[in-house]
Amino acid sequence: MKKLACLMLVVLVTLCCAVLAGCAEGKMDAAIKNGDNYTIAAAYDDETHILSAVQTVELTNRSENSFDAIKFHIYANQYRQDAAHPVVPNVYRTRAYPNGESYGDIAFDSVLVAGKPVAFTVEGEDCDILSVPTAGLEPNKSVEVELTYQVQLANVHHRLGYNDNTVNLGNWYPVLCHIDNGSYTASPYYNIGDPFVSEVANYKVSLTLPEKYVVASTGELTDALSSGGNVTYTYAANAVRDFAMVLSDKFTKISRTVGDTQVNYFYYADADAETSLQTACGMVEMLNEKVGRYPYAQYSVAETEFCYGGMEYPNLALVTSRSESYQDAVAHETAHQWFYGLVGNDQIAAAWQDEGLSEFVTYLYLDKVGTVPLATNILQNIRTYTTYVDVLDKYYSQVDCSLRPIYGYKNDGEYVVFTYVKGSLLFSTLYETVGAAKFWKALSCYFDEAIFTVAPYSQLENCFAKVCGDEAANIFEQFVEGNEIIGKVTD
Ligand SMILES: [Zn+2]
What we know:
Immunoglobulin-like; binds zinc ion; Neutral Protease, domain 2; 11 helices; eight-stranded mixed β-sheet; alpha+beta; five-stranded mixed β-sheet
């Protein structure tokens, strides 16, 4: 995700409240073979704002334990009126609900396992986990689950919801919970950060909707069939960790090819669309060359309405219309295609791992194209961080400077300062210490080792240690534990 600019303002407000191509292809083939398979047939009614879907998931138990139940995240329920963790934190509610409060949810008509109806339950502290009984699914055994459901969209400028210009379909369908150490991590939703962890999987998704809509989507369009004023688009996406779409009857689409990828830009209000497309293409080109080749046939950036700066999904970035740092957001979300998309991480436990890195890589891109010198962004971040910590020091007897799980921050402002600002300072310190050549080599090592996985941050640290020596590992530890000294923190 890309937070809005004016970090100092956010601080004050919130205080008050080059891998070888053949090798990569082999890894993609393996990821496809080892991934679960989702097939979703959905229809969108733009009068009721209801998405009706039938979804099958062919999944294999790849853990060493047997399971009596399969767990899915159902993030659509986070938009309920009585949600314990409202999807939008208070400080962003005005921006998220310009037309007044609005709510949504997901309701299941049926759940089948191997073709037979089962007594499913909706659980979790916020009704955001679907539990499907499987009567002892042994390791290496496969099963097919079929879910029939309806998603009511809210009128909200968020990942999932409709607004005056677009329909955002992010985190809309039940997605398997991540398995860690042989157990499902059915973690709750948090309205700070991007509280998602998911494995790569294979998707075939069809969406039926009125013909007036243009669709920006994860995956590749494989079929389009018109009938009675509606059109059914079918997409295939292999080895991706999520599937999202943005619909609009106002979209114009422009495209360019970079490497093996068609880069698309969907916009409706952007007066400088060519520049936005160039930013996306430039970042893809830079990371193709420096880190590793983007293995997908298409990548789309979609202008949309969102209460933050943007949001990343595989093959698709949402960028908030009219935001003052629009090009920065295009670059940041594009960097996420590598750091979150191709190399995944636990975005709850170590959000800085993809956010800090995507932010710093954005600074490198802006420096490369002559928009903002690297030193300017770094100096601004040092000032933001030290000011924030100084103020915290005055209000609290103890200041925790560690990089924590997202639920460990007091509020969204603290999350932003530590995850984005301090996170990018971690990577700028590494860059200054080891030099550009070794920095990129370490990221290339990370990409090569961890592509299509959910990588612990120790793997990133180990790549830097391997390429750059122990000093790099020491920098990671100091920043994560909060023992580093950045600027003049306290008197
Ligand atoms: Zn981000």
